[in-house]
Amino acid sequence: MKQLKTLFIMVIFLLLISACGQDDQTSQAKGESETKIYTDTTGVEVEIPKNPERIVTTQYLDAMIALGHKPVGAATHVLDNNYLKEKQEGVVDIGNPVNVEKVLELEPDLIITANPEEVEQLSKIAPTVVIAFNAVDVYGQLTEVGKVLGKEDEAEAWIADYKEKSEEAQEQLNGVIGEDETVSIFMTYKNILRVYGGRNIGHIFYRSLGLTPPPYIQEKIADDPEFVEFNNEEISMEKLPELAGDHIIMLNYGPETSEEGGMFNDIENSTLWQNLDAVEAGNFHVIQQEPWFTYSPIASKESLELSVDLLTK
Amino acid sequence: MTAKAKLRKKFILSSIILLIAIVCSSLLSLNLGIITISPLEVWQTILGNGTEQQELVLFQFRLPRITLAILIGIGLAVSGAVLQSITQNDLAEPGILGINAGAGLAIVLFIFFFQNTMSMSEGLSIFIMPLFALLGAFTAAILIYILSWKRGVSPIRLILVGIGVNAGFNAILIIFQLKMDPQDFRQVTVWLTGDIWNANWSFVYALAPWIIILVPLVLLKASTLNLMHLSDEVASGLGSNVEVERRILLIFAVALAGASVAAGGGIAFLGLVAPHIARRMIGPLHQYMIPLTTLIGAFILITADMIANNLLSPTALPVGVIIAILSTPYFIYLLMKA
């Protein structure tokens, strides 16, 4: 009996604590704004506002900022970067995994996500479209987000500008890397070694700068001309001589790989590596994960700007 | 009063206390969240007088999560209780036996091989991952059972093989995780430590049949469980077909754990702690122990989920981590008492 009494008092106490919150939200006035139909990358037709104002995204922060429409909320993992700086000021963190109540609190009129699983709950808050990350290349990210925002022209202009800058960069690199020389892109992460294709890190070097990948990667790209499928392949250290081109780009992701026992540490100290032509000639460049590893528009542009210096050093 | 009547009285009292605790923690969980809704408004919304937004938050976001927590808590707790009894080992639980790892590996394989090559419609993708988890759980269980077969399956072999399979699956899991891009890796880690973030009514409807059907079935086998908990010799001496019963009960335990893990991710320790507490409260008689285990499991998970979701808003902590933190003092206490 005594236990029941204590429990009862606890209940009252707890209810009193939660009563301390005041709800001052007014229900949304849903104006009759125009809508359009957008077919997202999963094939679903969604009715979205023509001129969305408050947008929440779980992935495409970069693309939205590039198109001049800052979202009101974005997921933790995309906000967690060093290259957007003031551009992402004011964007609210909606958690990772997405906290539906946080999104609701932001009162969005449109939600852009990369994950089909999130649609069921998010679509209860606002119209939700899916742009699957692996359905498009980085230009596609911009184009699709542009379609959603009604900013197709801005997207086209951005892409045209980027391609122009790519050509400028190619001219600047004239003679630095011979026309029949190949460039390989490797990445180390903890104790993993990978070789990369035309997505992600390869976008700058192979697509923007027009450099030539090693034959193995050329084949992979030939099979995947839209750059949506092949991202990278894990390899063992012994494959380095076979895949290493005349120039080597090495991206080290995270600190563990350079510490003892890490892959890059092992590679650097191996005679295999030291005997590679590219290494002996000093034609290898180490890059860090930011902004190179982020496969999105503004990051790609920054990487492009860094690339000329990187290769001419 | 006879000992039997005393026990019965204790059982009823404990059940009432736990039910009240469950109601209280559910109500508290319903009231907490980023969108502030006062208890009066909660009551009004339940009566149908709330705003559209309040109904959305309460009935589409919070209530399914709480319901799912209850179901998963029951599922994992009962699974643990059954495993402990059929292995005659109080440290057994679905996580240790590799069932979580089996489900986890299936999820990792799915994300690694299929997620990027299949463009799935929203409806399908929500259910495929849990289905894979369930398949993984059963594969692990079948593997463990086959490997521990030697003219029957002795409890100790079951546990040892389970631990081995667990280690093996976890190793393979790590290999695949490292092959992934950090983004997918993050998604897998979130799943592996248990999270009920995607709680919606579809998941509840998917999980509910498993719990509603299997738990009463386990309860029906309470007498068998009483015997098996003692020892194989006593059990077969008293007429139980030990091998068959063990197999059936194992299937129940794996199904419960697999379904729960499919819905809520890899939540460890719950299946270990809940039966322990139940046994301390009411003793090893399964007719009373199993019902109390369900109540304790539900209560722990509701509370842990509430803490996980509200402690560091907007980030949701993995429920599994909270339960591990809550369980650790209990284990230390047990160790000190031993």
Automatic annotation (TrEMBL), chain A:
<keyword id="KW-0813">Transport</keyword>
<keyword id="KW-0732">Signal</keyword>
<dbReference type="Pfam" id="PF01497">
    <property type="entry name" value="Peripla_BP_2"/>
</dbReference>
<dbReference type="GO" id="GO:0005886">
    <property type="term" value="C:plasma membrane"/>
</dbReference>
<dbReference type="GO" id="GO:1901678">
    <property type="term" value="P:iron coordination entity transport"/>
</dbReference>
<protein>
    <submittedName>
        <fullName>Iron complex transport system substrate-binding protein</fullName>
    </submittedName>
</protein>
<dbReference type="GO" id="GO:0030288">
    <property type="term" value="C:outer membrane-bounded periplasmic space"/>
</dbReference>
<comment type="similarity">
    <text>Belongs to the bacterial solute-binding protein 8 family.</text>
</comment>
<keyword id="KW-0175">Coiled coil</keyword>
<feature type="coiled-coil region">
    <location>
        <begin position="152"/>
        <end position="179"/>
    </location>
</feature>
<dbReference type="InterPro" id="IPR051313">
    <property type="entry name" value="Bact_iron-sidero_bind"/>
</dbReference>
<feature type="domain" description="Fe/B12 periplasmic-binding">
    <location>
        <begin position="52"/>
        <end position="313"/>
    </location>
</feature>
<feature type="signal peptide">
    <location>
        <begin position="1"/>
        <end position="21"/>
    </location>
</feature>
<dbReference type="InterPro" id="IPR002491">
    <property type="entry name" value="ABC_transptr_periplasmic_BD"/>
</dbReference>
Automatic annotation (TrEMBL), chain B:
<feature type="transmembrane region" description="Helical">
    <location>
        <begin position="126"/>
        <end position="146"/>
    </location>
</feature>
<keyword id="KW-1003">Cell membrane</keyword>
<feature type="transmembrane region" description="Helical">
    <location>
        <begin position="316"/>
        <end position="336"/>
    </location>
</feature>
<dbReference type="InterPro" id="IPR000522">
    <property type="entry name" value="ABC_transptr_permease_BtuC"/>
</dbReference>
<dbReference type="GO" id="GO:0022857">
    <property type="term" value="F:transmembrane transporter activity"/>
</dbReference>
<feature type="transmembrane region" description="Helical">
    <location>
        <begin position="198"/>
        <end position="220"/>
    </location>
</feature>
<feature type="transmembrane region" description="Helical">
    <location>
        <begin position="66"/>
        <end position="83"/>
    </location>
</feature>
<feature type="transmembrane region" description="Helical">
    <location>
        <begin position="248"/>
        <end position="273"/>
    </location>
</feature>
<dbReference type="GO" id="GO:0033214">
    <property type="term" value="P:siderophore-iron import into cell"/>
</dbReference>
<dbReference type="Pfam" id="PF01032">
    <property type="entry name" value="FecCD"/>
</dbReference>
<dbReference type="InterPro" id="IPR037294">
    <property type="entry name" value="ABC_BtuC-like"/>
</dbReference>
<keyword id="KW-1133">Transmembrane helix</keyword>
<feature type="transmembrane region" description="Helical">
    <location>
        <begin position="12"/>
        <end position="37"/>
    </location>
</feature>
<feature type="transmembrane region" description="Helical">
    <location>
        <begin position="285"/>
        <end position="304"/>
    </location>
</feature>
<feature type="transmembrane region" description="Helical">
    <location>
        <begin position="95"/>
        <end position="114"/>
    </location>
</feature>
<protein>
    <submittedName>
        <fullName>Iron complex transport system permease protein</fullName>
    </submittedName>
</protein>
<dbReference type="GO" id="GO:0005886">
    <property type="term" value="C:plasma membrane"/>
</dbReference>
<keyword id="KW-0472">Membrane</keyword>
<comment type="similarity">
    <text>Belongs to the binding-protein-dependent transport system permease family. FecCD subfamily.</text>
</comment>
<feature type="transmembrane region" description="Helical">
    <location>
        <begin position="158"/>
        <end position="178"/>
    </location>
</feature>
<keyword id="KW-0813">Transport</keyword>
<keyword id="KW-0812">Transmembrane</keyword>
